[in-house]
């Protein structure tokens, strides 16, 4: 249930592995792509991920019918698939300078291959892991190809049934994948929190006996932070410099300040889980003295009777616990006590 990607441990005992997904947010500028790398590293992420394909490896150069996006709710309405992928793809010759810049800045670079030729290309760059996108999680040939490299696989589970995931996981493991992460994903862009169903995470982990995480397309960081409490060890979020800069995925991408907050708050969430515990922790021990307890509130002499007029339940906590108040009322004082004395059994 634990392994490493380029020396970075993945597992519940370690800080969440945060992936900044560049996707097409480079807007066809290598300079901008490298700026995104720098901003991602400055935000504290563990990895930057690319997508490796061309328009021709994704679809056909047809601009009508099934190849035209007509969905009125789609961010990409009015585009053909071919034109969309031409706009969004990361030129393959950019991969090495991007990988090199990541290495210089101390973050991991890897990618999502969308066909077998992309796996071969990424192997030439010694990619340390492979991400399989939700839309390809039933592409068994691609999964076998990526698994056969022996590198860790991170697979998004968007739209997949349990039966489909079972086949995917079996084939990946049969082909040589020893280290697998399954990401809960909702394949809408953006996704809404109420359609995210992160309660699936522990069930997913139990079914397939592997680490789980989130490929999170919701806005903000709340869903990702909450997912850590349910077992997420990997968080993937789309990333850009500014949403106002535009780009194919900019509308649901994180900005640097948000990514920095995500890195910080997901680790706080993990640290807060701790273990099942009751009673005083070592760090709380000093706070015990600030509990309420019973104190003498007036100067008293032997023979005086304890009453609500001369006992108070107050802070600090050096006197008897307040639960003994009823037993003490009406008892006789045996020695002189001053106002502000903690009430103990020895004075009655």
From TrEMBL:
Domain of life according to the entry: Bacteria
PROSITE patterns: AFP_LIKE
Molecular function, one GO term: N-acylneuraminate-9-phosphate synthase activity
Protein name: N-acetylneuraminate synthase
Residue ranges constituting the AFP-like domain according to the UniProt record: 293-348
Single biological process term from Gene Ontology: carbohydrate biosynthetic process
Entries under Gene3D superfamilies matching the protein: Aldolase class I, Antifreeze-like/N-acetylneuraminic acid synthase C-terminal domain
Organism (species): Paenibacillus stellifer
Cited InterPro entries: AFP_Neu5c_C_sf, Aldolase_TIM, PseI-like, PseI/NeuA/B-like_N, Pseudaminic_synth_PseI, SAF, SAF_AFP_Neu5Ac, SAF_PseI/NeuA/NeuB
UniProt cross-references to Pfam families, sorted A to Z: NeuB, SAF
